[in-house]
Amino acid sequence: MSTRHAKVPSARQELLPWLAVLALFLTLPAWLGEYWLGSAIVGLFYVMMAASWNLLAGFTGQVSFAHAAFAGVGAYTSGILAVKLGLHPLLGVPVGVAAAALLSLGLGALCIRMGGIYLSLTTLAFSEILRLVINNEYEITRGTMGLKVPFILGDYSKATAFYLMLAAAAAVLLVIRWLLKSDLGLMFRAVQNDEVAADSLGVPVTRIRVTAFVISGAMAGLAGGLYGHYLTLITPHIPSLDLMFLVLAMAVIGGMGTFAGPVVGALFLEVLAEYIRVWGEFHVLIFSLVALGFARFLPGGIVGLATAWLTRRPARSGKGGAA
Amino acid sequence: MSELLRVEGVSKSFGGVQALGEISFSLAEHELLGLIGPNGAGKTTLFHLIAGTLLPDAGRITFAGHDITRLKAHQTCRLGIARTFQVTRPFAKLTCLENVEVALVGAEAPVAREDRAERCAELLGLVGLKGKERLAAGQLNLIDKKRLEMARALATNPRLILLDEVLGGLNSLEMGQAMDLISLINREMGTTVIWIEHVMGAIMRLSQRVLVLDQGELIFTGTPEQVAQDRRVIEAYLGEQDA
C-alpha cells in the first residue's frame, strides 16, 4: 500500500512565486528594449492562449483544435468593428470576446456530446472553415493581405500594449485559478477523471464540458482581440493551425493539466523561438516533434519534471541520513 | 410500506443479444432486495437502466412517482438514486475527500460549503477510510476503492442505493464490516437497497426478498428461504455454486 499523499500547498506558498514573476514583468519595459519587449507581448498572448487551452484539454480532457480559430474570431470581430464602424478597440475587444463565447457555445452544444476524437475532428474542421471564409471574404477581412486596424489605446507604444497584455494575462490566470478551486473546477476534474462515475453522482457532464469549452473559447477571443490591436494588422495567421499547434506544443511541453505548465511553456518557447527564428517555419515543426516526445515520455511536461525533482529531493536526503 | 420503485416490462438488447427481456418488479420503501443470477444474467444491465447510465429499449421505470425511464444518470441521482460500480470507477487523480465532495456538489446535497469537508470525512470514516482522506483515489487498493464507492454513493443522500458486488474480493473480516455497513444503511438510515451479490450467505442473511435473473429473464422472486428451495433457481445458479 503506497502512502504518497496528494500534495496540498498552502495558498501563500503558491502565490509567492507568481507575485515575484509579476513584479519582474512590471519592470520589463524599463530595461528590456523595444525588440524584446515585443517578444514579451507575444509571449503574454501565448500565455493566455496556452493557459486557456489547458483549462479545456488539461482539466476537462477535451482536445480542441479550434482555440486559435476562437482567437481569430475575437481579433476579426473587434478589427472589423473598428474599421467599418469606428468602434474603439477597448469596446471592440469585449464584443470579440462575446462573439468567441457565442460561437464556442454553438460549436460546443453541437459536437461535445460526441466527445473524444470526434470533438477534435469537428473543431479541426471548424478551424479550417473559418480560415477559408477569412481568406475568401476579401471585402470584409482583406483576406491574406491582412486587415489594418487601429492600435489598442492612444498612440502606438509597446509599453502600453505590454501593460494591457500583462493585465489581461494576469486576469485570465486569476480566473483560471479561481475556477479550478471552485465547485465548477472540481466538476471539471471529476468529468476528466471518469465521466460515467461523475454522471452517476449527479454531475451534468455535457453541461460541464460545454461550460469549459465556452469559458476557454472566450479567453481565446480576448487574447486574439488584444493581440490583433497590438499588431495593428490582423492576418489569417491568428486563426491558423500553425498557431494552434504552437499553442498546443507550449501547453504540452510546459505541462498539461498543471496550472503553471502552459505559462512556463509559452514563455520558454516564445524566447526560444526568437533564437531559432532563422530556421523559419521549421521551428513549429521542431516544437511539434519535441511536444510529441514530451506527450509520450514526459506527460507532466517541464513543470511535472520540476515538481517531481523538488518533491523527491527531501525523500532522498532523508534516506541518505538514515544510511 | 409504500412503493418506491416500479419496473414494468423493461427490455434491453446490445446489437442482436438480448440482455434483459420484459423485466417487471416493484420495490417498497426501506426494503433490502437481493439480486442474484449467474454471470451475464443482466444484473448490472438492470442497474444501468434504473440509474440511467443506459436507456431501455422498451418498458417503463417509475421512481417515487416520477417517470425516470428516459432520464440520465445525473438526473436520477438528484431524484435520489445512487449506485456503486462493480468495476470501481474512482476519480483517480482526486483525493478521497474530493471524490466524496464531487458527490455532495453533484447531487446538490443539502450541506453548507463550510461543513463539506467535515461531512466528507464523516462518510469516509463510516466506510472505513479514516486517515486516507488526502490520498489520491487511484492509489487505493481494490477494497478501499469499493469503500470509496460506498462513501460517494451515500454522499448523494440517496433514497435508493444500488450496490453492485461490494463484497467481491473481501476477506471474511472485511466482509463482516461491509455487511454491518449495508445493514446500517438499510435499517438505521432507512435507505432502500438493491444489492447484487455472488456471496450467497451474505445476501440470504440480509435480504428481505430476492430476485433471481437468468439469461435476461426474471425466473424467481421470493424470500431467501423460498429461493434456496426453488428447483429452477438451484438448476440455474445455486447448484453450480454449491457443487
Which key terms come to mind for this protein?
heterodimer; A: 323 residues; mainly alpha; two-stranded antiparallel sheet; 14 helices; 77% helix; 1% strand; B: 2 domains; globular
Strand order of the largest sheet of chain A: 1-2
Number of H- or I-type helical stretches of chain A = 14
Q: In angstroms, what is the radius of gyration of chain B?
A: 18 Å
Summarize the main sheet of chain B: 6 strands, mixed
Approximate helicity band of chain B: 25-40%
Q: Main sheet of chain A, how many strands, which sense, barrel?
A: 2 strands, antiparallel
CATH architectural type of the largest domain in chain B: 3-Layer(aba) Sandwich
**Structural class from helices and strands of chain B?**
alpha/beta
What is the average of the pLDDT values of chain A? 88
Rg of chain A computed from alpha carbons, rounded to a whole number of angstroms = 20 Å
Oligomer: heterodimer
Broad shape of chain A:
globular
Percent of residues of chain B in beta strands?
25-35%
- Overall average pLDDT of chain B: 89
How is the topology of this model organized?
The complex is a heterodimer of chains A (323) and B (243).
Chain A: H1 11-31, H2 34-60, H3 67-85, H4 89-111, H5 116-136, H6 138-141, E1 147-148, H7 158-181, H8 183-193, H9 195-200, H10 205-231, E2 233-234, H11 241-254, H12 261-275, H13 282-297, H14 301-322
Antiparallel strand pairs in A: 1-2
Chain B: E1 3-14, E2 17-28, E3 32-36, H1 43-51, E4 58-63, E5 66-67, H2 73-79, E6 81-83, H3 96-106, H4 116-126, H5 142-155, E7 160-164, H6 172-188, E8 192-196, H7 200-206, E9 209-214, E10 217-222, H8 224-229, H9 231-242
Parallel strand pairs in B: 3-8, 3-9, 6-7, 7-8
Antiparallel strand pairs in B: 1-2, 1-4, 4-5, 9-10
Helix pairs in contact in B: 3-4, 3-5, 4-5
